[in-house]
Fold this sequence. Notes:
The protein has helices at 3-6, 125-130, 249-255, and strands at residues 15-19, 25-30, 34-39, 44-50, 77-78, 103-109, 115-122, 135-143, 147-155, 161-163, 165-167, 170-172, 180-182, 188-191, 197-200, 212-216, 223-226, 233-238, 242-247, 267-274, 280-282, 287-296. It is mainly beta. Strands 5, 11, 12, 14, 15, 16, 19 and 20 form an 8-stranded antiparallel beta sheet that branches. An 8-stranded antiparallel beta sheet has the order 6-7-8-9-22-18-17-13, with no helix packed on it. The two termini are 35 Å apart. The model has no long low-confidence stretch (mean pLDDT 97). The structure holds 6-O-phosphono-beta-D-glucopyranose (BG6).
Amino acid sequence: MELDSLRLHAIPGSVEILNGGGGLPMLRLLGRDSTVDVYPHGAHVASFVPKGGRDALFMSGKSYFADGKPIRGGVPLIFPWFGPNAKDASLPAHGFARTQSWSVASTSVAADGSVSARFELKASDATRKLWPHAFSLAFTVTAGKSLSMSLEVRNTGDEPFTFEEALHTYLAVPDVRQVAIDGLKGRTYLDKMAGAARTVQTESPFGIVAETDRVYLDTPDAVHVTLPGHLAVTVAKKGSATTVVWNPWVAKAKAMADFGDDEWPRMLCVETANAASNAVTLAAGATHVMTATVTVG
Length: 297
Ligand code: BG6
């Protein structure tokens, strides 16, 4: 999307249209209580800075900012499948929403000083080649006391379809080896480090001590991440039954071209999702909404 057409959505003092990474256009939402950067490329939230604080989101210094490539860090928006495509491994991992150019539908300022932007993506020839369904997506990002993100999926076709989705939130942490993660006690996860073996989370809170890639099923509740001497971060959600916890650790970090070898201690993904047995089946004409809210302190 070109800067000139985006400028229609600028609001003096509240929404700036800027050149972001790689010269990609970016919206900066200047809320009373936080500042949020979001790219139409992938409807990708790249930064959330609560007033007087630091960026609560991690962004890799090695990220691509280019057409056709996902941004590494912030909040990649995953749709309509999570991870590799179950039927065709040659299709892009985590679907196509994170690499499409979304349109900006509107920007607004609320009475409480929070600032929102709404993005849209509709089925096109490009998406039909990858996924043969009629859909429209709307994604609303709000810079308030919290970062709020709401993804609406609408089935605009005549047949039901099934999809997966995730707001793949990269939290910035001083050292992932020190975090304590709470809110998943007793839940079953698919351990992708062990062939997706079903495993029960007995310890809570728990820490990260190795490469971790877990899909927690039937987990509608908020997750809290605490760090000694630092503010806690809460990821709360609605319309989401899956929580993914991911850190690549040493070897996987080295293997990723768009991720610095030494960056893994500074991030923890806590992803608000509907995946695996929690995939959503949507009737013709129906809409599903999933919301994630990130709060610091
Ligand atoms: C996580 C997955 O959500 O995303 C991991 O559970 C995956 O398996 C990670 O490695 C990163 O994926 P990508 O496609 O952004 O490299």
